[in-house]
Design a protein that fits this description.
7 helices; globular; seven-stranded parallel sheet; alpha/beta; 41% helix
């Protein structure tokens, strides 16, 4: 792995641990010589992880739609900034630039980004590792929902392993480094049962 895409809130959240862990993740990326790809904002957890990597002399690549510049403040000190037209282009560019993905706490946008790369992994568009940094149990309800969907027959059991979850940035990055995609199978259980 050379580059990790980090999805994160453009707000800091109410728990100070969220920002602390964004900075811890940034320091861990630096320690491993990994470049950061992210949404290009200077705000919230996005800004925290980017600033930590930049202050340590690391490379940070931002991707932002031009139309968001008014609402989401673009980071002016990035190593590279890719301007795109749409959110779809933003996500595709971040995917293309990255060797793996990590979600810090965030809101609808972060959920949408992480679920999209999980869905793409499920149908075989990529086999890149995907991780959740479960700060103070932030992602525990989401993991319970995935477990529930698996038990209800909507997610094949082996595909529950598409996402790696850890509460320690170093352990998460170790697991992403060593990641092997689950045994290839068919997403559509009705086809495999016949």
């Amino acid at each position: 792995m050379k580059r990790i895409c980090v999805f994160a809130g453009s707000n800091p959240g109410v728990n100070p641990a969220y920002a602390q862990y964004a900075e811890m993740l940034g320091r861990e990326l630096l320690a491993r010589g990994l470049e950061l790809v992210y949404g290009g904002s200077n705000m919230g957890l996005m800004g925290r992880v980017a600033n930590t990597v930049l202050e340590g002399g690391g490379k940070v690549i931002g991707v932002m739609p031009t139309g968001l510049f008014r609402g989401e403040i673009v980071h002016k000190g990035l190593t590279e900034l890719h301007e795109v037209v749409t959110m779809h282009e933003r996500k595709a560019k971040m995917h293309d630039l990255s060797d793996g993905f990590i979600a810090l706490p965030g809101g609808y946008g972060t959920f949408e980004e992480i679920f999209e790369v999980v869905s793409w992994g499920q149908i075989g568009i990529h086999s890149k590792p995907i991780g959740l940094l479960n700060v103070d149990g932030f992602y525990t309800p989401l993991l319970e929902m995935v477990r529930h969907a698996t038990e209800a027959g909507f997610i094949p059991q082996m595909q529950g392993e598409l996402v790696v979850c850890e509460s320690d940035p170093a352990v998460l990055l170790d697991r992403l480094r060593d990641y092997k995609p689950p045994v290839k199978g068919n997403k559509w259980s009705e086809l495999t049962e016949k």
